[in-house]
Design brief:
Oligomer: single chain
Shape: globular
Bound molecules: succinic acid
Radius of gyration: 22 Å
CATH architecture of the largest domain: 3-Layer(bba) Sandwich
Number of domains: 3
Low-confidence stretches: 505-509
Number of strands: 19
Mean pLDDT: 95
CATH topology of the largest domain: FAD/NAD(P)-binding domain
Number of helices: 15
CATH superfamily of the largest domain: FAD/NAD(P)-binding domain
Distance between the termini: 52 Å
Length: 509
């Protein structure tokens, strides 16, 4: 049977945790799951070291989890959405366990709870120590492969969404034998993040905002794109993508020091466990002042390190480091995108028939700065909402279209632009300069134009936010605006605004 013969089924684009969970929740309704690579091979989900945040401890409850999430989000979370998602978090752990995920447990049998930055309670559920994503993907891929109604199509990449009369009408994809048009009225984006648009990221290089480009070119609204999370402790070395040194290591007592041994965060409220944006900025500024920065895990977790964090210990060992004996050199790296395709509580976007969940979606849970380990929780909870809102909707007859080819996205020329202008610290002139170059690239209609269009929307959203908040810090607007407002942008609006920017000055291009 060819892919076209399956026409009419809903299509899920993306084979990470959000996509797999949506497919599993939809079963036994037939669904097509599209993955660029063999399932699990390149999903950023599989790399997650942190686990899922859920208020499971005797000293915890969803209201405390919500309070921590809102505080980290710096005034920009959607409180109602956050409350819904976090109340469902304990159930998400049970759901995953039901699909065969083997969570780390204490001898009494309840999940072992870890601590990460800006959480007031131990509430991070891990699997396989620092291999949470890998273990969750193992179980979910096995569950998907044994569900006969889920048709997994690997090696196909979605290139465009067809829209007719404002509704989704199909997916133009590129497969091993060339372009294919798949007629469907229902598409779920679960494509992950944007790390591949940056020089320094902890994400797979192939995550370069494809879902944002698909949605934007279909006319969907995107929200909060300027909020990009930088993880303060990526292993400083030549490996790309960079190796993450989980925040859970700091949760177990490791400290951040400079080359003199000084804990330069000790004056900051929460110190090493302050919200991630604050720690990332402090590390960034200290490096910019000419210092070197290290994670010191020699005392705590000390000799227990390799047992607790086997994946990180092995990566350090490849770099010639033993965390129980050596300081670990670290620097901030792009890690997560709080912004995404704007969705409602059922995962619906502004285009009829198009839904989204996981990192590509913006529910409003994370606000201006995501609380650690809230994202896998969000992916699992929201995948159910998306499946429920799709379930039972009739297959709409859509017209087959001619399958034309679009080049595979190449973010190479975009990376230095975003890395320079949209990093931990930003300013208006840098953003304008990047926007002008991104506009030219986006208009070229070649392999760089989709990544450039995504970069342009992010740059314009950052330019239009004339304040500093959460992960968005501008030296020319260092304070909060009086009123916190979420942002929304479309590709059309970003292109129009960029065309109005004054011509580039030699000194800023
Ligand atoms: C980490 O383990 O530090 C990352 C967890 C997360 O990004 O939520």
């Amino acid at each position: 049977m060819s892919v076209e013969d399956l026409g009419g089924r809903p299509v899920i684009i993306g084979g990470g945790i959000a996509g797999l969970m949506t497919a599993l929740h939809l079963a036994p309704e037939p669904v097509l799951l599209l993955s660029r690579t063999p399932l699990g091979a390149e999903a950023s989900s599989a790399w997650a070291q942190g686990g899922l945040a859920a208020s499971l401890g005797d000293d915890d409850d969803p209201a405390l989890h919500l309070a921590d999430t809102l505080a980290a989000g710096d005034g920009l979370c959607d409180g109602e959405m956050a409350s819904r998602i976090l109340n469902a978090a304990p159930g998400a752990i049970e759901t995953l366990a039901g699909f065969g995920v083997r969570f780390d447990r204490i001898p009494e049998g309840t999940p072992r709870l870890g601590l990460e930055a800006a959480h007031s309670r131990r509430r991070i559920v891990h699997a396989d120590g620092d291999g949470s994503g890998r273990e969750i993907m193992r179980a979910l891929v096995a569950a998907v492969r044994s569900t006969p109604t889920i048709e997994v199509v690997e090696g196909f990449e979605a290139r465009r969404l067809a829209v007719e009369d404002g509704r989704i009408a199909g997916v133009l994809m590129s497969g091993p034998a060339g372009p294919v048009f798949f007629a469907t009225g229902r598409v779920v984006l679960a494509t992950g993040g944007i790390g591949g648009l940056f020089d320094d990221s902890t994400n797979p290089l192939g995550s370069c905002g494809q879902g944002l480009a698909l949605a934007a070119r279909a006319g969907a609204a995107l929200a909060d794109l300027e909020f990009i999370q930088f993880h303060p402790t990526a292993l400083d070395g030549s490996n790309r993508p960079m190796t993450l040194i989980s925040e859970a290591v700091r949760g177990e007592g490791a400290t951040i020091v400079d080359e003199t041994g000084r804990r330069f965060l000790d004056g900051v409220r929460g110190a090493e466990l302050a919200p991630r944006d604050i720690v990332a900025r402090a590390v960034w500024n200290h490096l910019a002042d000419g210092h070197r920065v290290f994670l010191d895990a020699r005392e705590k977790p000390g000799p227990a390190f390799a047992g607790q964090f086997p994946t990180i210990a092995s990566a350090c060992s490849k770099a010639g480091l033993d965390p129980a004996r050596d300081l670990i050199p670290v620097r901030p790296a792009q890690h997560y995108h709080m912004g995404g395709v704007a969705v409602d509580g059922s995962g619906r976007t502004s285009v009829a028939g198009l839904l989204a969940c996981g990192e590509v979606a913006s529910t409003g849970l994370h606000g201006a700065n995501r609380l650690a380990s809230n994202s896998l929780t969000e992916a699992v909870v929201c995948a159910r909402c998306v499946a429920e809102s799709l379930s039972g909707t009739p297959a709409r007859r859509t017209k087959p279209a001619i399958a034309s080819d679009y080049p595979s996205p190449d973010p190479t020329p975009v990376r230095p632009l975003l890395s320079r202008a949209l990093g931990v610290v930003r300013d208006g002139e840098g953003l304008k300069a990047a926007a002008r170059t991104l506009l030219a690239l986006a208009e070229r209609k070649d392999a760089a134009s989709d990544p450039a269009a995504v970069g342009l929307m992010i740059a314009m959203a950052a330019l239009q936010r004339r304040e500093s908040r959460g992960a968005h810090y501008r030296t020319d607007f260092p304070d909060h605006a009086a009123v916190a407002r979420r942002s929304e942008i479309t590709l059309q609006a970003a292109l129009a605004a960029a065309r109005e920017l004054a011509p580039a000055l030699e000194s800023v291009t």
